[in-house]
Design brief:
The chain has 11 helices and 9 strands. The chain has one domain: TIM Barrel, CATH 3.20.20. Strands 1, 2, 3, 4, 5 and 6 form a 6-stranded parallel β-sheet that branches. The chain is an alpha/beta fold.
Length: 327
């Protein structure tokens, strides 16, 4: 069987058009965000929406909860959809909801979005106090049930403490190295060495604010960055997490950054020029363009097996050991 193609983060404005484009692009599995700032009940409403899509488009998509579902997707020509949170708001202040969310099919949870949460510090805060008492206990409970700790939007100390406190490898599902492009959301070499040294995974983002050169970033630059990351951390710890927000209106960026906590717009990355969604690079406009990344990786010298790993097999291996209780 050919290598699996997995995109480990999207927040598209989902539709039949996008589901069909995933099939056209050969996307076997996708991790989708079902909560940014939602409460538990609001998150459940989002699950209801996905259930309707699964009912309406059974030939295109189905709910994924285990690594075996990725292979099932390959065998049946569909896309397995895995759920995740970009903020711990759906667990509110109740540690018992971690297991409930896992039972509902959620497989990833960020300990923070850009702000301080009850668990840890987000990357936009001036002071990073690390994991809170609740945060440490939440990590332990996530480890117990098989809910992956994701630190994509978390600040430096908090990320390091999550890596160190977690008994299982964690993920940074959608970010790039800060040595390539020093965005607030990108991760330091120290963090990435700690992450991968403990068996964790990094998913490379193609969201323009995370790219060197922004929307004008070239495929060659992106793939050369991945090659350098492989030299530093090992290709087996690398994957793709595009952070694709296809067809979303600009108002969704405001919701992502502002939620309900502020009356003013947080532009992010320090500029009003970033108020809306930036144009995607010409080599990645959507789910039909993963072949460009695959070809770009081959062009910078990766072997066929390394390309297969980065395009999805590494994530699949991570899924196999991360989505259930420790055995």
């Amino acid at each position: 069987m050919a290598g699996a193609l997995i995109d480990n983060l999207q927040y598209a404005n989902w539709s039949e058009k996008i589901f069909r484009q995933m099939r056209q692009g050969g996307v076997d599995a996708v991790h989708v965000t079902i909560a940014y700032h939602e409460s538990f009940r609001e998150m459940v409403l989002n699950l209801e929406g996905w259930n309707r899509w699964f009912e309406q488009f059974p030939g295109l998509i189905f709910k994924g909860t285990t690594a075996a579902d990725v292979r099932l997707a390959q065998e049946t020509g569909r896309t397995a959809v895995f759920f995740g949170f970009q903020n711990p708001s759906p667990i509110e202040d109740d540690i018992g909801l971690i297991e409930i969310c896992h039972q509902l099919g959620v497989r990833f949870m960020q300990l923070t979005y850009n702000n301080q949460s009850l668990l840890a510090t987000g990357c936009y805060e001036a002071e990073d106090t690390g994991l809170t008492r609740f945060g440490k206990q939440a990590v332990e409970e996530m480890n117990r049930v098989g809910l992956v700790v994701d630190m994509s939007h978390s600040a430096e100390r908090s990320t390091r403490e999550a890596i160190d406190h977690s008994a299982r490898p964690i993920a940074i599902t959608h970010a790039n190295p800060a040595w390539w492009h020093p965005a607030l959301r990108n991760k330091s070499d120290e963090v990435l060495r700690a992450l991968t040294g403990r068996g964790g995974m990094l998913g490379f983002s193609v969201y323009p604010h995370h790219l060197k050169g922004g929307s004008a970033c070239t495929l060659e630059s992106f793939c050369e960055m991945i090659a350098e990351a492989a030299a530093r951390y090992g290709a087996e710890h690398l994957g793709i997490g595009t952070d694709l927000c296809q067809d979303q209106p600009d108002s969704v960026v405001e919701w992502m950054r502002v939620g309900r906590w502020s009356k003013v717009i947080d532009y992010g990355e320090g500029s009003k020029d970033n108020a809306g969604f930036p144009p995607m690079p010409d080599w990645f406009q959507g789910n039909r363009d993963f072949g460009n990344i695959r070809n770009g990786l081959a062009d910078v010298g990766f072997s066929g097996s390394e390309v297969d790993g980065i395009m999805g097999e590494n994530w699949l291996r991570f899924y196999e050991t991360s989505f259930g209780p420790v055995t």
